[in-house]
Structures are given as structure tokens and as C-alpha cells.
Specification:
Layout: H1 2-22, E1 26-29, H2 30-41, E2 44-50, E3 56-61, E4 67-72, E5 77-84
Antiparallel strand pairs: 1-5, 2-3, 3-4, 4-5
């Protein structure tokens, strides 16, 4: 299941890469954004991975389905590149079609 979440996070990051470049993102120190997501939205990290450019991609999900995707550079600067509602977890086995 973790591998599926990681794949989803990476795919989401690539999907939102053009969005992040075209629109302003909320950027700050990673610890500040993580604290904000936890305190204000009850979100916690459920998946993470490193992309081909060395960016840390993380998915945070709250108890009522709110979600955020953070990209963090090696220098510790993070940007929230996407957020929304209705996050769902699926138990998809890697290598199998759904």
C-alpha cells in the first residue's frame, strides 16, 4: 500500500509540475509548512518519495479527506503545489491492472 501511495504522490507531482510553474505556490521552510498543515488542517504525511530532480515529494492527508502535496528542495525550502478535498486510499497491488 505504501508503494502505491508513493507512486500516486510522484505521479501527482509530475502532473502538477506545470501548474506549479504557471501559478504561485505557497513556499516556506518545510517544518513551518508541515506544522501549519497539522495544526490547521489535521493533515499528516502518508506518502513520500524523491523525484528525478532530487526533490522530496510528500502527500499529507487530513481526517476528513483534505490533502496537500509538498515539494521540498535539498536546501529545505518547501512549496505546496497542490491541495484539495476527497482524498481516497486504494489498495492497489503494483504490477496489476485495475
Amino acid at each position: 500500500m505504501r508503494a502505491c501511495l508513493l507512486i500516486a504522490a510522484v505521479l501527482a507531482a509530475f502532473s502538477f509540475a506545470s501548474f506549479a510553474a504557471a501559478s504561485p505556490s505557497v513556499c516556506d521552510r518545510r517544518d513551518a509548512l508541515v506544522a501549519y498543515l497539522g495544526a490547521n488542517h489535521g493533515e499528516r504525511r502518508v506518502a513520500a518519495g524523491i523525484d528525478g530532480q532530487g526533490l522530496l515529494v510528500e502527500v499529507f492527508v487530513g481526517p476528513e479527506g483534505g490533502w496537500s502535496i509538498l515539494l521540498t528542495r535539498p536546501n529545505g525550502t518547501s512549496c505546496m503545489v497542490a491541495a484539495g478535498q476527497g482524498w481516497e486510499f486504494f489498495g492497489i497491488a503494483i504490477g496489476r491492472e485495475t
